[in-house]
Write a structure and sequence with these properties.
The chain is an alpha+beta fold. The chain folds into 2 domains: about 80 residues; about 160 residues, Beta Barrel (Thrombin, subunit H). It has 3 helices and 12 strands, in the order H-H-E-E-E-E-E-E-E-E-E-E-E-E-H. The protein has a 6-stranded antiparallel barrel with strand order 1-2-5-4-3-12. It has a 6-stranded antiparallel β-barrel with strand order 6-7-8-11-10-9. The longest helix has about 70 residues. The N terminus is likely disordered.
Length: about 290
């Protein structure tokens, strides 16, 4: 009896031990399987997680683009600053080059003339409407005196009317009180150039029979011993022939724009130079060159 009971107990225990893995596997499968009422919660959780994941990716992408734009903006600012600096240097170099060319032209002019010239710089301009004058940085200390001609390489500017010790006031040819002896270059007819306005002069006392047309060059006559003979003075812009007048009224535009003049020459001895004769000699040489070659 004891033997039978013992075998039954051992068999039950053995059966229980063998059935435990099966029970465990069955319980695990039941845990994995979702019931119908849990599916909506699972869908909601997955959707929320997907939304937050997409939002996180968008924020990371936007942040990256913003930082990239900041870097591009800083780089553009630096490039713009560098470009401005290069433009400034280029402008300075261009200005220095122009000044060098201008000074070289002035030096060549001074070397190739017989006139005794004193270089000067324009340091002021008269703002009074009734007068057209400029102020230069040379005066009686440098040997200047009233009545001396002031000119540039291009043409006549005016003459000194009020010298001081360190500076001098120059009356421009456009001043209404200015009077300069003049010639019509192509006909050699004499006249007097007087100031008319800040931009114009007038050539008077020229006979009506003279052949004068717009575009003709008017040069200094040299009879006043102020300007050298034959130096450019102005260009004819208009010729008026009045029936009751014995002379022409000729409007001129000065060759030199006094508002743009920076350096000038003061002529101490004008009678030593004759630009009209120089022009005649050059024309004669150019005329004889073709015949000589033939």
């Amino acid at each position: 009896m004891n033997f039978l009971n013992f075998n039954i107990r051992k068999a039950f225990i053995l059966l229980l031990v063998l059935s435990l893995p099966l029970i465990s596997i069955n319980m695990e499968q039941k845990k994995v399987q979702n019931t119908w009422f849990t599916e909506p919660f699972s869908f909601l959780a997955e959707s929320t997680q997907a939304v937050f994941a997409n939002l996180s990716r968008g924020v990371r992408s936007t942040t990256g683009e913003y930082l990239n734009l900041l870097n591009i903006k800083i780089r553009n600012t630096n490039l713009q600053k560098e470009n401005d600096e290069l433009k400034t240097r280029l402008n300075q170099m261009t200005e220095s080059q122009n000044e060098l060319e201008r000074l070289r032209t002035l030096l060549d002019f001074q070397k190739n003339t017989k006139m005794d010239l004193v270089p000067a710089q324009v340091i002021g301009r008269d703002l009074v409407p009734d007068h057209n004058t400029i102020t230069i940085n040379k005066g009686t200390k440098h040997g200047l005196k009233a009545g001396q001609a002031v000119l540039t390489v291009s043409g006549a500017v005016g003459y000194i009317f009020k010298p001081q010790y360190f500076t001098s006031h120059v009356m421009l040819v456009t001043d209404r009180y200015s009077v300069v002896d003049a010639l019509i270059q192509k006909t050699r007819a004499h006249g007097i150039v007087e100031g008319k306005s800040p931009e114009l002069c007038v050539l008077q006392y020229v006979e009506r029979t003279e052949d004068v047309k717009p575009g003709d060059l008017i040069v200094t006559g040299g009879l006043d011993n102020i300007f050298p003979k034959g130096f450019p003075l102005g260009v004819v812009t208009n010729v008026e022939r009045k029936t009751k007048s014995a002379s022409l009224i000729i409007d001129l535009k000065p060759v030199v724009d006094a508002n743009k003049v920076e350096e000038v020459f003061i002529v101490k001895h004008a009678a030593l130079e004759d630009f009209l004769q120089k022009a005649t000699d050059v024309s004669a040489v150019e005329t004889t060159k073709p015949s000589a070659s033939k």
